[in-house]
Amino acid sequence: MTKALPSRLPPPFHWVEEQDRKHLFLGSTKVLEICKRNRGWIVHIFLQDPERPQPIVAVGSANAGMRWGANWAKLRVRLLSSLAAAKDDHTPTTPS
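Below the sequence we write its predicted structure tokens.
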């Protein structure tokens, strides 16, 4: 049996994978993280609509978390792009 790959997301979404963590970024903004919790895995969402916060989601594996996260993000591409842009606008810059 082969493992299903996560859904493709449009650029500038990208995954950063570590041993026990997977991060989904939109440009330089962290959208979500999949990490090991006890004997399972959870998806913790960092970039979300403040009026409709998403709870932490339990998943069976890192790959299942990546699939869930990619599908979740695909449904919210416009919202996430707006939130990331607003977050970038409020990031302090250092004078050069």
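The CA atoms of residues 24 and 61 lie 16 Å apart.
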